[in-house]
Amino acid sequence: MVRSVEFAGFSVGPGHPLAILAGPCVLEDPEMALRAADGLARACAAQGLPYVFKGSFDKANRTRAESFRGPGLHDGLAWLQRVREQVGVPVTTNVHEPGQAAPAAEVVDLLQVPAFLCRQTDLLLACGRTTRPVNLKKGPFLAPADLRHAADKVRGAGSPGVLATERGTTFGYHDLVADLRAIPWLHEVGLPVVFDATHAVQRPGAADGRSGGDRRLAPVLARAAVAAGADAIFLEVHPDPDRALSDAATQLPLDAVPALLAELSALAAVVRR
Asked: Residue 42: which residues within 8 A CB-CB, separation 6 or more?
């Protein structure tokens, strides 16, 4: 039985409205974050979809040392707090080290564990001890059912709920394949499923030391994931993706999101009926 996760006044799981987690890959400046959050909040409200703003204060896994990583913990959390207060939406962000979990939990409504860190026990326990719900991103090297062990660590440390994010599996060099069988398999181990449609179309490291990919395929996978029973959709969205400082090849343009959300909402209504 899937354990729905409740936070910020709504629930994520089977039988509940499709939720949207969306925002820029990395926080670039506070005004851009506010612009993206406001546009996404309006688009979700128009479809009656619960919305959570996402943005990373640090991209600790950049391919090159000189690549932009973000504003850091202190400033990044301050920017997220501004979004939460001024736009009036819940917020989420990645934490990469155990020491980041507690200060992040003072600001965000949902903690996220990056895919490549989903087996790091100290990080998982630190997130669980905050008693915030946690979104575990499944590593591209992990079988879906095996994520239950990470979820057990988080819940055992005190978290009231765990989400599982599916974002593709490594398939040879520079490529990922999204296997939508992961959605029912993750449901079978009791986890609500978030499908990450933009990371799933990445080609890690394929653009000469940067992640490549094809954003045109993200809406295709998002629609397929909703049809397969996903409980939430994760999207990286930027006002001007081609000039984004991270994941420029896969982020969706802000102005393209309302039409996509209308499609996802209609599909979700059919699936849930």
From this structure: none
